Design the sequence.
């Protein structure tokens, strides 16, 4: 029986470059095996740092110094290290979007931070709400440690912050003297439209901290990501790592894989993902248009679906599960775990035919989990 897994945010197994990666591994072993006898250190594999500097520089149109990059074990390690470095045991508050990546919630709550979520609209974190929150905290004599924002192809909502709002975010962070952490994990999983510059390309302040990953353009199993920051911030953050550095072998293979350029593989993977997104949106339009509203992500791996308030989430999860349809309920992304009438649908790794067959089943389950047949009374996502 088919499994319709819209839950896990993984890349597309159909476009993993098996042969090219095999050849890259052979070259890495032949050329770099002597280095495998050493510990990589806090910053990690130089050639991979140079390639990631090139990646950022080419996307952002500004020079990027590889010596400002530290390779980490996925972007998740960067997320955690930033929290550990910036907290000091007093008012360890982090400001995030109201809905954010579940791993970030676990990491920051796990190290003892208090998370304050800012509501979103179709353009991401709302700046009026951010200003109100910071002003309220300041009145109470409380200063957060930093702002963590998923400005680009937000997980879970799929929103993308436009330039003007990002400039506003940078201005507000500076006014309150707060480091701004931009997690751009999905940065090059781009489908259409202009790419909005990252905060580090708009502002040279040493309070800009940027996080990148290889999980979403290549594979999460390589467990490689990176941190980009100026001194003294970079040293402050990497001094919290006690792991002797990130996997040098994986770094060497990935650096070999990308030695002739970073974009060639993205040019293969992104159109396939965009096609999946379109199939998903087409299937939703055919089945749920009268009762739901959803995001149209211009990049990333997720779609955010708003349902009527009378959907019983427990019943929906159970009925869908019985029919092998899986998704993530909105509450798990809410910083206070609030019950909300949203679900996240991940489409990156689901084969096309299972998207087409799975969404009508999900739609039927949503309808069966309601207490009425009323048409929706809302027309916006938030
Ligand atoms: C926003 C965000 N940050 C970080 C991560 C962690 O990714 P990784 O550690 O594989 O780079 C994810 C994974 O889904 C994510 O969505």
Sequence:
């Amino acid at each position: 029986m088919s499994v319709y897994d819209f839950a896990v945010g993984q890349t597309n197994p159909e476009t993993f470059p098996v042969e090219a990666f095999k050849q890259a591994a052979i070259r890495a072993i032949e050329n770099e095996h002597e280095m495998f006898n050493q510990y990589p250190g806090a910053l990690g594999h130089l050639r991979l740092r140079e390639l990631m500097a090139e990646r950022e520089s080419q996307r952002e149109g500004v020079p990027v110094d590889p010596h400002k990059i530290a390779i980490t074990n996925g972007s998740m390690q960067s997320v955690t290290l930033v929290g550990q470095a910036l907290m000091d045991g007093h008012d360890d508050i982090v400001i995030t979007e109201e809905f954010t990546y579940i791993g970030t919630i676990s990491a920051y709550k796990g190290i003892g931070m208090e998370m304050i979520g800012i509501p979103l609209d179709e353009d991401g974190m709302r700046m009026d709400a951010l200003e109100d929150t910071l002003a309220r905290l300041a009145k109470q004599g409380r200063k957060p440690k930093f702002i963590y924002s998923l400005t680009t192809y937000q997980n879970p909502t799929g929103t993308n912050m436009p330039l003007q709002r990002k400039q506003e975010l940078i201005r507000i962070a500076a006014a309150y003297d707060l480091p701004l952490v931009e997690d751009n994990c999905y940065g090059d999983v781009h489908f259409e439209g202009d790419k909005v510059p990252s905060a580090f390309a708009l502002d040279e302040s040493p309070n800009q901290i940027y996080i990148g990953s290889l999980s979403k353009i290549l594979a999460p199993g390589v467990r490689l990501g990176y941190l980009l920051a100026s001194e003294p911030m970079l040293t402050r953050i990497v001094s919290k790592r006690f792991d002797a550095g990130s996997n040098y072998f994986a770094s060497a293979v990935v650096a070999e894989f990308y030695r002739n350029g970073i974009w060639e593989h993205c040019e293969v993977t992104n159109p396939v993902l965009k096609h999946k997104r379109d199939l998903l949106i087409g299937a939703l339009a055919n089945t749920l248009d009268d009762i739901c509203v959803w995001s149209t992500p211009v990049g990333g791996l997720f779609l955010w679906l708003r349902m009527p308030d009378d959907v019983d989430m427990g019943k929906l999860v159970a009925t869908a599960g019985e029919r092998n349809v899986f998704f993530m309920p909105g509450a798990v992304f809410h910083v206070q775990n609030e019950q909300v009438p949203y679900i996240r649908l991940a489409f990156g790794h689901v084969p096309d035919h299972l998207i087409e067959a799975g969404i009508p089943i999900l739609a039927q389950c949503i309808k069966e989990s309601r207490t009425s047949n009323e048409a929706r009374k809302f027309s916006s996502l938030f």
